[in-house]
Design a protein that fits this description.
Two copies of one chain form a homodimer. Chain A is an alpha/beta fold. Helices cover 39% and strands 20% of the residues of chain A. In chain A, helix 6 (172-183) packs across helix 8. Chain B binds a DNA duplex through residues 171-174, 205, 208-209, 211-215, 218-219, 231, 233-234.
Amino acid sequence: MDNPSASSHLRRPDGGSVRVLVVDDEPDLTDVLSGALRYEGWEVRTAADGAGALALARDFRPDAVVLDWMLPDTDGLALLRGIRAELERVCVLFLTARDAVEDRIAGITAGGDDYVTKPFSLEEVLARLRGLLRRAGMARDAGENRLVVGDLVMDEDAREVSRAGTAIDLSRTEFELLRYLMRNPRRVLSKARILDHVWSYDFGGRAHVVELYISYLRKKVDAGRVPLIHTVRGVGYVLKPEAP
Amino acid sequence: MDNPSASSHLRRPDGGSVRVLVVDDEPDLTDVLSGALRYEGWEVRTAADGAGALALARDFRPDAVVLDWMLPDTDGLALLRGIRAELERVCVLFLTARDAVEDRIAGITAGGDDYVTKPFSLEEVLARLRGLLRRAGMARDAGENRLVVGDLVMDEDAREVSRAGTAIDLSRTEFELLRYLMRNPRRVLSKARILDHVWSYDFGGRAHVVELYISYLRKKVDAGRVPLIHTVRGVGYVLKPEAP
DNA sequence: GCAACCTTTGAAAACTCTCTCAACGACGGG
DNA sequence: CCCGTCGTTGAGAGAGTTTTCAAAGGTTGC
């Protein structure tokens, strides 16, 4: 139930939908990813192996590719080369295992591509992908990446947050939770939904962590001020300025 | 009966009726659900198992599916994938047991999909389904989800209610009762009908709670103002502005 | 390797909401 | 006008939800 309009300003220069190709051999993962990407308003195709990926690169001609670096029986580097041969200007977001050969990835991402390590959260992938597309000129407003709710401001690239001019220091999880809230202002979000978006897809725990992190955010963001974070008992949480 | 016109603005882009597939093995439940959905003006088919669901996904091509997660002899996840293979853009509303939330299916709410836990109320299912369809582009007005009766305004997504500009704080049940009344303005609703729609289907209590919650709503919504909530003695209640 | 910080879990306290009971009041038929 | 029925409201018990507190385990950086 997120707000698709929040990112609808990301469109191709010709006005059509942004096209994304997801390449991964785990169906559970491609299901969730492609669902979320479609919900962002993007057109999505999926491939489970290198051959399928190359075929879709040629026929679907995506603007971005989400590519699992560790596909079975496929050399990631060769596949990347093949995709690039077909699509010169495509953005690539790599999905890698945490202990993967980081130096090879580092060299590849030097060209403007990016990567996230498994297990990742949905918002992490979405944020990176939005960043890539924005920098590749897919944004209508080429300005900086700022989120604003009331007097609360977030600079996603700098990972800086401030309220009424005062800087706020947040941990990684706090930042991602607040980003998700700020991307969906004035919309009540259930704990299950927050968990699905902000925590890793393999997180086994329960919604209690959400409550806890909401309390952390409150101490840092709302501390002594007019609250922006509101509890909707039995439903979830909502971020909104007091006066509409 | 309820007011179908209240949601008749939900139509497919081609102007036809929205199509919904209900999949559940309990006939009592499918009967009630499909009745309510038909009354919303939607076209409905039902299936009792995975095979039937897949067949109807192919032949009926619904816009949305209401899917019991705990079908006997059927893997919910596999069924979901099968349906998605057939219908890429379908919205899915899952029905799950309350204690199944523990082993929740991560990522179910990642895309546009949603779920409600049993036992649920009819209005809960209808509201979620309307929300899914609206966000999937099935609404003629893509604007926000607002209900207006006189100077009373409800924003369903933010769960905000205000009268003449003044915000009103409502509990969950109060909110659901008021939403039902606002979806059926100028129509006398019996207590039994309200109970059937707003309270869970397994609620054992009596219609007295309706009277009680009406009195709560009056204190908050009508307090000192021209009343919108009216008693029709021996029949039920009706929400309407004073002047016709 | 150590220290600091972050994340998660568990348990208990605090709180809100829901519902039942019961008394009171209002309406309408006779 | 009186009485019975229906509707309204107050009080309180109980259940469920949220918040807080404390501590363990893990990670990161020095």
